[in-house]
Amino acid sequence: MPLSLKHVIRQSKQEDGATGRRPPSLVLLHGVGSNEMDLFSLAPLMDPRFTVVSARGPLTRTPGSYAWFPVEFVPGGFVIDPKQAERSRQSILRFADELVEEYRLDPKQMYLMGFSQGCIMSLYTALTEPEHFAGVVGMSGRLLPEAIPMLAAPERLKGFPLLVVHGTEDTTIPISYGRDIRDHLAKLPVDLDYREYPIGHWVSNETIADVRAWLTARLDGRA
User: Does 4 map to a domain?
Assistant: First the structure.
């Protein structure tokens, strides 16, 4: 039976079939208007031990253009559909469980990595259900105000690993939103690594090198 979200996958190159050891995984969530092939271009740059899965958002905008929830850019901020954001959060949780079963992944070593709206959904999903994930890489996103009352209790979030990166020249989701993430999470007992780069609403070679190093350190137990 097909999984609940369309996706593409790069299998781990380090799975140990002799011992039955399950590989760690990295689940990629794209931004609004994009699709599963966008962030999948980063798969070859990630640690080869990861099984990398890039998921397609459930909402179709136009052919080849998808989203996790509708959003309207307005002066001074954003207008979203919080009910659809919540439905997508539930979809990601269900999809994560399906991936573990379908591809025999390590359920304790699944990371979320999202860009823009994918970052928003990664934070929303993992910070409300931290037991499902080993950590999050959030790139150029924001923390939904609607998500804050739903965040897991501090004792459930203790030590939860997050890497949040943002461009200081971002005109789509300005750096103030990245700093809001930093400031809000600083009040929680999470393990937050926050970094800024002199770029716009994209990722740079330096960003990707830092992301890879952070993820590899987590796998190696060096964090």
Answer: no
Question: Measured between alpha carbons, how far is 20 from 12 in angstroms, rounded to an integer?
Answer: 13
Contact between residue 169 and residue 198 where contact means Cβ atoms under 8 Å apart: yes
CA distances in angstroms from 217 to 41, 47, 123, listed in the order given: 22, 10, 20
pTM above 0.90, yes or no: yes
pLDDT in tens, 54-73: 999 999 999 999 999 999 98
Query: What is the CATH number for 51?
Result: 3.40.50.1820
Residue 144 lies in a domain: yes
